[in-house]
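Key result, reporting period 2: structure in, sequence out.
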């Protein structure tokens, strides 16, 4: 995926979760990326952030730090009882 498209997608996710009252936006962004982005996309995002994260919203960068201190990307599972 082009870096510009990846940055745009990650920032759109951050913009959405910043509007949700009572939510921890970085945690929600991290969960969304973990649940819905494929491993190559997550790896590309991590590499971009490690290279300085140019263009990434601060919430995205915080989400990446959040995941670094908790469950690795791709290991979180959706509770199916919440989707019924």
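The corresponding designed sequence is given below.
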């Amino acid at each position: 995926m082009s870096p510009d498209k990846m940055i745009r997608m990650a920032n759109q996710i951050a913009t959405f979760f910043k509007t949700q009252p009572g939510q921890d936006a970085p945690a929600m962004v991290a969960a969304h990326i973990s649940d819905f982005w494929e491993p190559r996309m997550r790896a590309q995002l991590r590499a971009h952030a490690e290279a300085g994260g140019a263009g990434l919203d601060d919430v995205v960068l915080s989400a990446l730090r959040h995941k670094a201190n908790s469950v690795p990307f791709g290991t979180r599972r959706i509770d199916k009882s919440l989707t019924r």
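Residues 43 and 73 are 9 Å apart (CA to CA). The chain has four helices and no strands. This case is discussed further under Risks and Mitigation.
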